[in-house]
């Protein structure tokens, strides 16, 4: 049975007193609430952080240290878990009712799935949602399942066109390309005039979505309960990606660690343009050869015949439903601190990450951040993904398809039809083809 927030809704007196004080109410009883000592809250929590351990992890550990300045007796066992392993690892541990973390940084598509399996606490009625309206609507919506809320947004993101300003200038290109056709021409010009590769496309399912969305496609239609991944629109989108490589506009992607290869080449100025997100800003910023943020350009992904848009991404803080009740207050205090506007502004300043709280955008660290400003039109053009329990399982077949099409030169229609059959057989079995 899915666990609710009975334990979460009743917080430590510290949290309650602070909340009442913040409201500034006229009830004298609220003024008489004893001011509890945060040091009285004692617990040991395990947090699985699925962010990049080198580029992002240190900033999250800094936040833990800040949290412990207020809550010195809440020990956070920080564990960096590879993103690609975390989804199945958490499901295995949660099903076994042992070894799962108390707090999980979950990718947005995982939350409905884990909630449907009963692995997460519903947070409705808890202090974590007392200011629910402060969260941006789309990031918050990824935490909803069956009328309840199972997480709070940590960060939102999407894919963008990231480019080397110096290389584009050398090639005589004054503005970033706005369509895939313009991108192809620009990439070929860059290669001809600078010797650097014009573009690198990561052959993975998530990175194919801008091409599919650009032609008006998507993987499923939730309203009609239909699998649409094999549509003509998606075929057309994949043909554009495939042509960019075949024409030489984009480098031939590596069969092994293509993502790592893409980032290395971009940081070393050997590739002028890539499609990636704000989670890599700090990585590029710290690269000795790149030239800092002054040389990094950010623009929306190019448009296809229908529109331009990358997938809405991001991560949420979730609480394992198997956590002992006596740890609930500490878990709520930790998640509340980590998801606060101040913490989000800290991460924005440190890493260029995009806050999910409206109030965070009023803080100087965010308001004056050029990366956040650059990503605003990118996020506005982003396409919401289907928040259904099965959505986290879409990308295994899509990853295989991307490899087959972009590396093994398989026909896009045949590859997408195979994905559709896989979805029907194993993922969304009640959907039609």
Automatic annotation (TrEMBL):
This chain's source organism reads Micromonospora thermarum
Q: Which SUPFAM superfamilies match?
A: Periplasmic binding protein-like II (SSF53850)
Q: Which PANTHER family match?
A: MALTOSE-BINDING PERIPLASMIC PROTEIN, MALTOSE_MALTODEXTRIN-BINDING PERIPLASMIC PROTEIN
> Which Pfam families does its entry note?
SBP_bac_8
Into which family does the record put it? Belongs to the bacterial solute-binding protein 1 family.
Q: Which UniProt keywords apply?
A: Signal, Transport
Lineage in the entry? Bacteria, Bacillati, Actinomycetota, Actinomycetes, Micromonosporales
Report the protein name in the record.
Extracellular solute-binding protein
**PROSITE patterns to which the protein is assigned, alphabetical:** PROKAR_LIPOPROTEIN
Membrane-crossing residue ranges in chain numbering: none
Q: Where is the signal peptide?
A: 1-21
């Amino acid at each position: 049975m899915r666990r609710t927030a009975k334990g979460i809704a009743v917080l430590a007196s510290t949290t309650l007193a602070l909340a009442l004080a913040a409201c500034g109410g006229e009830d004298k009883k609220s003024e008489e609430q004893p001011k509890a000592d945060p040091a009285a809250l004692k617990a040991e929590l395990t947090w699985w952080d699925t962010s990049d351990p080198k580029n992002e992890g240190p900033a999250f550990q800094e936040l833990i240290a800040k949290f412990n300045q207020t809550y010195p007796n809440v020990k956070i066992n920080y564990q960096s878990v590879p993103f690609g392993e975390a989804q199945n690892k958490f499901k295995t541990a949660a099903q076994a009712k042992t070894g799962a973390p108390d707090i999980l940084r979950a990718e947005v598509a995982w939350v409905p799935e884990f909630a449907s399996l009963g692995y997460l606490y519903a947070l409705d009625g808890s202090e974590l949602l007392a200011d629910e309206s402060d969260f941006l609507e789309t990031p918050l919506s990824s935490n909803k399942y069956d009328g309840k809320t199972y997480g709070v947004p940590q960060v939102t993101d999407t894919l963008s066109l990231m480019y080397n300003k110096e290389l584009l200038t050398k090639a005589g290109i004054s503005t970033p390309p706005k369509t895939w056709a313009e991108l192809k021409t620009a990439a070929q010009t860059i290669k001809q005039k600078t010797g650097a590769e014009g573009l690198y496309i990561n052959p993975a399912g998530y990175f194919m979505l801008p091409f599919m969305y650009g032609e008006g496609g998507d993987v499923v239609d939730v309203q009609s309960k239909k699998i649409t991944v094999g549509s003509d629109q998606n075929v057309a989108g994949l043909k554009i990606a495939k042509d960019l490589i075949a024409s030489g506009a984009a480098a031939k992607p590596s069969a092994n660690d293509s993502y790592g290869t893409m980032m290395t080449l971009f940081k070393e100025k050997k590739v002028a343009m890539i499609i990636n997100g704000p989670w890599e800003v700090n990585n590029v910023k710290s690269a000795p050869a790149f030239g800092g943020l002054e040389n990094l350009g950010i623009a929306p992904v190019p448009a296809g015949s229908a529109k331009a848009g990358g997938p809405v991404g991001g991560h949420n803080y979730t609480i394992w439903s198997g956590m002992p009740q006596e740890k609930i207050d500490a878990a709520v205090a930790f998640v509340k601190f980590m998801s606060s506007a101040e913490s989000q502004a800290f991460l924005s300043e440190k890493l260029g990450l995009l806050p999910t709280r409206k109030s965070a955008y009023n803080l100087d660290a965010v308001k004056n951040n050029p990366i956040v400003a650059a990503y605003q039109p990118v996020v506005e053009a982003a396409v919401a993904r289907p928040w259904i329990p099965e959505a986290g399982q879409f990308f295994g077949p899509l990853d295989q398809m991307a490899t087959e099409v972009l590396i093994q030169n398989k026909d896009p229609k045949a590859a997408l039809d195979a994905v559709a059959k896989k979805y029907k057989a194993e993922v969304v079995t009640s959907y039609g083809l």
